[in-house]
Structure formats: C-alpha cells, structure tokens
Amino acid sequence: MLHIFNVNQGQMLALDVASAVGSVHQLQEAVQGYTGVPVHDQVLLVSGGEILDAQRHVSSYHGAGTDSNPLYLVCKVTRGNVSQLSCSADIRELSLCLGGLKEDAQRLTEMATSFECVQRYSSLADRFTMASVSAVQTCSRLVQEQHLLHQGWQALASNLEDTVAAFERRAERFKAQYDKISTIKGRAVDLLRDFDADLDVLAQIPLPSCLVRESPAKSTMASSPKSDRMNSSCTLLEWISASDPDHSLRDVADEVRSLLSQVNEAAVSGIQTSLATVHEQANNREMKEIKGISKRFAQLDHHLRIADELEEKQRKFAELVKSQEHKALKGARDMDTVRELCRIQRDTADQLIDCQQQLTTIADKFAQSKAEVLNNVRARLSGWIVETHQQLHTGSNQLALYAEKLTALKRRLDVIRQVHEAPPIYATAVTEVIRRKALREDFSTWAQALVEKSLSLAKDEGVIRENFSSKLDRHFLRSLFPGMNDKLPEFATENPRNFDQDLPALEADHLRSLRRAVPTLSSLLQVAEPHVYDRLLVRDPRAPVTISPSSFHMRREESFFTAGSPLNMTTFAKSFPSTAWLSSGDENLDLSPGCDGLLMAKSPPVTMRVSSVASSSMKNASHLGQVTPLRPLSPPMGFNDSTLSERMERSGGSEATVVAPMSSSLAKSAPIRIPTRDSMTSSRQMSEKSSHFGTPEETFGIGSGDEMLSSPPEVISRSQFREEVGAI
After folding, report:
1. In 487-543, which ranges are continuous DSSP H helix?
2. Which chain regions cross the lipid bilayer (predicted)?
3. What does pLDDT average to in each consecutive run of 10 residues of the chain (728 residues)?
4. Per-residue confidence (pLDDT) for residue 409, from 0 to 100
C-alpha cells in the first residue's frame, strides 16, 4: 500500500500499490479520484519538504510512502468547515458502543437470577473487552495523526524556507549582474558616443568577394535583396547589416540607451525591499513553530499509557466474569451458588462500564486535541503560508522582469562592443591570414628538407652499422661489445600533415587596398615574417665559439677557423681506419690495420680539422641555400652565400655531391700575421678588438720587430699561411 497523509483533513489515505509504479502525475490523478482535489490544486511533499516532480516516477523517492513515512498531500485551496472535523465518526461509534453495553448490563441487572444470567454476563464481558481494544486503537491512531500533522507542517515550513532561499540567491545574482553593469556603464556611454564613428569606419572597409562567398553567414543573406551585390563586393558595414535586415545597428544603440535608463537604483531598491519583506515574514518564528506542541504530545503519550492500563484492567475483569461461569458449572447449578455468582458478575459489570467510560472519554479528548492541532495548521496554511507565497510570487515576477532586462542589456552591449572592435579585429585577421600562409610555405619547405636529411642520415648510418656488424658478429670479440646491433630510430621520415588549407584566399593586394581605404588601421596592417629557419635553427652545444645568427662581426681569433666539406661516407671511411679495413671485404679478416693505422698518429686531414660549428654551419648553409619564397630578414652569417647557392643550383641541390668550402664571414676574414719579437717592444697599442692571445715568438724570442703589420693584410691562401708559419 502507498500511504498519503492529507494535511488539510488530517487523515491517512491508503492507495493501491499500483499507484507507486507510475509517475507522480498518475499518482495525482489517483488522489483526485479518492479525495476530489483537482490535480492543479495538489502539492505532494516528502518529509524533508521536497515537492514531488510530476515527471518523475514515484519509486524514485526512496523510503517515502510508508505508514511511518508517508507522502504529504496539501491542498492549495482549503475546503470544508473546520468545526465539522472536531467530532469524528470513530468517537461517535465508541459512544454508541458504550451506550449499547450499558443497556445490556442494565437488562441483566433486572433479569432474575439463573444460570442463563451467568452465561449472559460472560458474553457481555467479551464485548467489553472488544470495545476496550477498539477504543485504545482509536486513541493510538488519533495520536499518530497529530504527529503526522505536525510533520506535515514541518515539511511545509521547510519547503517555504527552501523557496525563500532560492529567491534570495536569485536576488543576489541579480545584484551582482547589476553591479557589473554599473561598473561598465561609463564604458557603455563611451561606446555609444563613438558608435557613429565606428559605423563610419566599417563603411570604409572593403570586403573582398572571397570572404563573402566563404562566410557561413552567406545562407542568411541569400534571401536579402542586396545579396547579389554583396557576392561581388561590399563593405563590412553592409555585410553586418545584411545579417538582420529588419533591424539596424542604430536601433541596437537606441535600445541600449533605453535599457540603461530603465535599470537603475530604484529598480534594485524595489527588489531589495520585496526581498526584505519576504525574508522577515518567512522567518516569523511564531508562525513557523506551533507553540506547546511538544507539551501536548507528552500529555497525549501519558493518556495513551492510561488507556493501555484500562484495557488491561478490562481484560482482567472479563476473565473474572468468565471464571464465575465455570464455578457455576462445577456447583451443579446450585441456586445459592448461582445467586452469589450473579452478584459478583453485576459488580464486575459495573467496573467494566466504568473503565469503558474512561476509555471513551480519553478517545474523545484525543479527538478534540486532533481538531485543535488541525485547526491551527489549517489557519497557518491558509494565512501565513499563502501570504508568504504570494509575496514570493510577486517578488519573483519583479525579479524576473528586471533580470530579463539586464540580460537584454548585456547582449546588446556585447553587440555594441563587437561593432567597436570589428575594424581592428578585421585588420588583424587579414594580416594573420597572410602571415600563416607565409609560415605554411616556409615550414613546408623546411620540413621537406629535414625529412630528406633525416632519411639520408638514417641510410648512411644504417650502412655503417650493417658493415660493422657483419664483421663483429663473426668474431669472438663480439661478447665484449653488447648492444651493437641497435638501429637508428626513425625520426622525421615523413612530411607533416597539411595545415592551414582552409584559409581565405586573401592576398597582399587586399592588404594594400585596406591601407589606402582606412589609413587609421595602417599600424595594424603590417605582416611580420615568420622566420621559420631562424626559429628552428639548432647549433652544436659542444661548439667552443658561439656565433650569433644576427651578428655580422666576429672576433679576430675566429679567423683561424676554415671551412671544410660536409662529412660523407668516403670521408668517414678514411678518417676511421677500423671501419675502412672492416669494410674492405672478407679477404682482410686475417689482417691488422696497415698503413692506414698510422693515420692515428698524424694530424687529421684538413677536412676533419673543421670545428663542429663549421660543419654544422655548412650543413645549414647547404640547406638554407635552397630557393624559398620567403627569406628571413636577418639570417645568420654564413647562411646567405650566393656562391654556394649557385653551386647547389648547378648540381641539382643534392647535398651528397656538393663538397665545397664554406663561403661565409669565417673564410672572408684574413689570417693574423704572426708578430715578430721586435714587435713586442713596439710602443704601438693593440686594437681594442684584439683578443690579446700569445704567439710562439713571445716564448722563444724568434723574429724581427720590423715584421709587425700596421694594417690588415690581404687574404692569403692556406698553403702560403703554412709556408710562413714553417719559415718561423
């Protein structure tokens, strides 16, 4: 069974369990069939004050609907007379039962003494026992209904508190929004003052047809009579206005001015006054709490215990009367014994009547107490609850009205702000499109070159490792060198996926036309080069000399560095004899390194004396020498050699076949002439750019002071440099 307690009537309804299977709305329809209360006047609550949602299932409210925790039904419109509820049908039934028992006892008193009289007294005692049980059950139910009335009232009060709290939270959000609007009110006034000037700027900005065709808003402008002209050319102002032909941007500005005048301090003060009134009335403790209810419940429990004692007393009296019948049977129906038994039964019947009278009186008091509690609850329900909810409804409607105005004001202010920011954002977007196209082109060429270099490195390294492993794997020394079979991991072996393919078809011509059309935006119509090669440049961290890519000058000692050819398989094999003889074939398995091994004691070839910086620079130079659409504004020194680019173009751009000295500022600087001993005594001061490093003449005292150079020498060849050093 599904138990629902009707707070307005103070009665429990027991509905079929099928009502708990469906939705709350179906349950309300079933309640309407039982009570006649329309669905729109019903309010179903749980003990915590939560109102049941009509769309949810009744079973989703766990633990609700039992006899100890029923659902609470409240009718919005109070029906019936409260005074009619003071005397219930149960009390009338108890009174009628007591009257009938009294009449039967009186007839037995007037009846002549006989064994039949003894038997009738025994039957009358059973009826008294049943009447006492019914009276105690009625008393218990009346006490429980009063407790449920109080719990139902508490559920209503909790629901009212939750409703007021929700209203206060809405009012706080409204106040926060209003404060935010107040802070930007000055900014809004400035935007409105400059709005006409913003529209004039928008009218000067030409919108190319490619943007109009690719815009997602094209479908909204298709029905406009100006759509054909816009497909060819239009201004940014015309494009914005075509999105809503029924309203103009100046109408939006007028609406903002009107809303700013409506949402003022007076409106906020009115809402705060309504909130204070609702808060004060909802927190009225005299109405929220029923005074004396706890004391009343204590008295009811006390009288209920008395009723239980009277019931027990009735049961004992009934057993005494029935025992007299057994004595009469044992006495063989002796008249003296029968007369004595009848006298005892008459006295006991009087006590039964007295106990039943007390039980009926207690039940009547319980009924009166329930009527008082019910009258109190119904008075509060029709008065305090209804009035508070009406004020809540009024304040909520007022709050919703001004909140809607605030929302409309925020949206229109956002439109005004976007119109003001449209020219600079449009100019920035145009330059960003062109910049991204340049970045895409440079990055694609850089990535393609990186992939080619990575594949070439992987191929060469694979050959080296394979040749070495083919020899070492068949030698007993392989156990000393574990991990020699690893392969170079794949890195940058594929070109990156395409990106920025859906950019608008904007060109530099549109940028120039914008500069002419809107000179005020010239500062924003500047495209910065992406500098992909400079930003992705990586140098060897072990390099002893740091060469700044943006520097065009170098120290004097850096002139000692000479350019060498890039490393390839041939150079690598000649530089490492072990690799050379291991790679020479199976016929050299029984030979040790021969003359090539003496190279370990000699100076390395000229090509191997190049520092890691020169080699790295050469690799980057051979790569950056490729013809690309956009070049960095400030490329590193050594990366702009036209001779190297021309050689690479003649050789087809293959790095594997290009072996040339690096033409850079490193090679163009003349070597330092070695000073003589006499120069050490010269009074001429060294240049501030000199590194002040020593020479062999300072130690051994060889040379002449006349050989000190007074001016930078001409560029000499490497062989001449060696001859001069050897002569010293």
Report:
1. 508-517, 532-535
2. none
3. 90 84 89 90 91 90 88 81 57 84 81 76 85 91 93 93 92 89 87 92 90 61 49 82 88 91 84 88 87 92 93 86 69 68 81 89 91 91 90 91 91 94 95 94 94 94 93 91 90 90 89 91 89 88 63 40 42 43 42 37 39 37 38 38 36 37 41 46 41 38 39 45 48
4. 92
E strand or H helix that includes residue 372? helix 335-380
Q: Sheet with 71-75: list strands edge to edge.
A: 11-15, 2-6, 71-75, 42-45
Task: Tell me which DSSP letter residue 134 carries.
Answer: H
Q: How far is the C-alpha of 389 from the C-alpha of 484, rounded, in Å?
A: 86
Only one residue has tokens 């009449």, namely 103
Tokens of 652: 């087809």
Phi-psi region of 292 (alpha: psi -120 to 50; beta: other; left: phi over 0): left
Euclidean distance between CA atoms 343 and 350, whole angstroms:
11
The radius of gyration computed from the CA coordinates of the chain, to the nearest angstrom, equals 54
CA–CA dist 369, 286 (Å, integer) = 20
For residue 52, the domain's CATH number is 3.10.20.90
* Same domain for 381 and 320: yes
**What are the E-state strand segments in 204-347?**
206-207, 234-235
Interstrand relation of 234-235 and 42-45 (parallel, antiparallel or unpaired): unpaired
DSSP state of 420: H
Q: Which two tokens stand for residue 328?
A: 């009469």
Q: Which of 453, 73, 539, 136 lies closest to 308 in space, CA to CA?
A: 136
> Does residue 484 sit in helix, strand or coil?
coil
User: Based on the domain organization, do 117 and 25 belong to the same domain?
Assistant: no
Q: How many domains does the chain have?
A: 3
Residue 535 lies in a domain: no
Query: In the prediction, which pLDDT does 452 show?
Result: 94
For CA atoms 95, 96, 102, 106, the dihedral sign is: positive
For 140, phi and psi rounded to 5 degrees?
-60, -40
Closest to 215 (Cα-Cα) out of 239, 198, 235, 192:
239
Residue 438 pLDDT: 93
Q: Give 413's Cβ-side CA count (13 Å radius).
A: 20
Of 393, 411, 445, the last residue of a domain is 393
**Integer Cα distance of 630 and 637 in angstroms:** 18
Written as one letter, the residue type at 248 is S
The overall longest dimension of the chain from CA atoms, in Å, is 175
Stated length of the chain = 728
Pairing label, strands 2-6, 11-15: antiparallel
User: What's the gap between Cα 630 and its chain centre?
Assistant: 43
Do 70 and 8 sit in the same domain of this protein?
yes
What's the CA gap between 563 and 619, in Å, rounded?
11
CA 571 – CA 606 distance, rounded (Å): 11
pLDDT at 288: 86
Beta strands in 417-572 (DSSP E): none
Structure tokens at 282: 């909802």
Cβ atoms of 65 and 20 within 8 Å: the answer is yes
CA–CA separation, 148 vs 6, rounded Å? 9
- The verdict on residue 683 lying in a domain is yes
Do 305 and 159 lie in a common domain?
A: yes
Expressed as residue numbers, the domain containing 322 is 89-164+292-393
Residue whose structure tokens are 């859906």: 502
Residue 370: φ, ψ to 5°: -65, -40
Helices and strands (H and E) in the chain: how many: 24, 6
Residue (of 258, 193, 264) closest to 416 by Cα position:
193
Between CA 74 and CA 82, with CA 77 as vertex, the angle to 5 degrees is 85
Q: What is the DSSP letter of 563?
A: -
Cβ count within 10 A of residue 335: 11
- Count CB-CB contacts under 10 A for residue 728: 13
607, HSE (Cβ side, Cα atoms, 13 Å): 13
